[in-house]
């Protein structure tokens, strides 16, 4: 059984051109899970399958006709209990590229404000015959809780400071695309590790693929027992960058800071902000990543964000392909 057989793509830009097709796989492969709750629940083989599928979807979304009819009979609800722009748009675009029916739900305009519970909210949506739920929630474990209580497939789009699995997957996919492989590479994650769901998911994903991971930031923003996850800690940014092949720069999670973790933003930038001058002073060229949104002039300067070493826009593009792959592979299990 094929993953989605041959995709018919009509090229409107070339006259008298026959229907062009692409074959993704002759043999159907499946994810080991029915939900994407977190990286810690999947396997290296799952990651390989997602990347293999994303490779082909990236080819599709770079064609003149970017839509495929793979999920015409699948309905997906995007339920965001936290504000989001990039992730929500990326998921919606991925779903529409696959021809799924899409429902978008924002807690700010919903009955949640009137006291409705998470389960009641989702069950009301499922009553509309939804096959998959993509959810972002401020509470760690919310996606796992939901997956245990509903029949639809659940994709975690971020649960508090816990995990953000699709971000970690697109980050690894981008490293693989840029450097050829993730295995054996040295990745430093810089910034607010304590409050970052991106950091935790990246640590799990990178280590699963054989990368070395180091974290760098102020002592107050590094979890006490993070070394138990097999990562090393470096508080000196220059030393961290001299060690690394890739630096993933995280935004300080101001909305999650209930106390002051450093004196001033200016002081944080002086110690942990990456400038072009700093990069040019290294004895090698490293790759700069950022999950966004960027605080220009804080964690990185504009000339770094817009430099040749930055793959930030590639991360955005790859996010659509990777989320298409995740959604497609999970939907395949629903159909089966």
TrEMBL record:
GO molecular function list: amino acid binding; aspartate carbamoyltransferase activity
Residue span, Aspartate/ornithine carbamoyltransferase Asp/Orn-binding domain: 184-329
Enzyme Commission (EC) number: 2.1.3.2
Keyword Transcription regulation: no
Annotated L-aspartate binding sites: 114, 197, 251
Annotated Gene3D superfamilies: Aspartate/ornithine carbamoyltransferase
Keyword hit for Transferase: yes
Pathway in which this enzyme or protein is active: Pyrimidine metabolism; UMP biosynthesis via de novo pathway; (S)-dihydroorotate from bicarbonate: step 2/3
Oligomer status and interactors: Heterododecamer (2C3:3R2) of six catalytic PyrB chains organized as two trimers (C3), and six regulatory PyrI chains organized as three dimers (R2).
Homology family: Belongs to the aspartate/ornithine carbamoyltransferase superfamily. ATCase family.
Family matches, as PANTHER family: ASPARTATE CARBAMOYLTRANSFERASE, ORNITHINE CARBAMOYLTRANSFERASE, MITOCHONDRIAL
Database matches in NCBIfam families: asp_carb_tr, PRK00856.1
Protein name: Aspartate carbamoyltransferase
């Amino acid at each position: 059984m094929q993953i989605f057989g041959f995709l018919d793509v009509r090229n409107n830009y070339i006259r008298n051109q026959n229907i062009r097709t692409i074959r993704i796989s002759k043999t159907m492969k499946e994810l080991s899970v029915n939900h994407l709750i977190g990286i810690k629940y999947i396997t290296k083989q799952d990651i390989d399958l997602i990347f293999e599928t994303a490779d082909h979807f990236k080819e599709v979304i770079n064609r003149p006709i970017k839509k495929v009819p793979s999920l015409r009979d699948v309905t997906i609800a995007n339920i965001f209990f936290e504000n989001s722009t990039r992730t929500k748009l990326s998921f919606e675009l991925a779903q529409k590229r696959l021809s799924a029916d899409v429902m978008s739900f924002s807690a700010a305009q919903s009955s949640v404000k009137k006291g409705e519970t998470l389960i009641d909210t989702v069950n009301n949506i499922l009553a509309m015959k939804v096959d998959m739920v993509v959810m972002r929630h401020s509470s760690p474990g919310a996606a796992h809780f939901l997956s245990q209580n509903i029949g639809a497939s659940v994709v975690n789009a971020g649960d508090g400071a816990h995990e953000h699995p699709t971000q970690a997957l697109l980050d690894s996919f981008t490293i693989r695309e840029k450097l050829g492989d993730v295995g054996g590479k040295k990745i430093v994650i810089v910034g607010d590790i304590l409050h970052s769901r991106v950091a935790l998911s990246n640590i799990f994903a990178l280590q699963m693929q054989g990368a070395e991971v180091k974290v760098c930031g102020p002592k107050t923003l590094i979890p006490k027992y993070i070394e138990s996850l097999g990562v090393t800690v470096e508080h000196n940014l220059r030393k961290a960058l001299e060690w690394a092949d890739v630096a993933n720069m995280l935004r300080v999670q101001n909305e999650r800071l209930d106390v002051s973790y450093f004196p001033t933003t200016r002081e944080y930038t002086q110690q942990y902000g990456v400038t072009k001058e700093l990069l040019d002073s290294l004895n090698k060229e490293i790759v700069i990543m950022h999950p966004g949104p960027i605080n220009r002039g804080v964690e990185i300067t504009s000339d770094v964000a817009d430099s040749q070493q930055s793959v930030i826009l590639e991360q955005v593009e790859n996010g659509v392909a990777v989320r298409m792959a995740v959604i497609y592979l999970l939907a395949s299990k629903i159909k089966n």
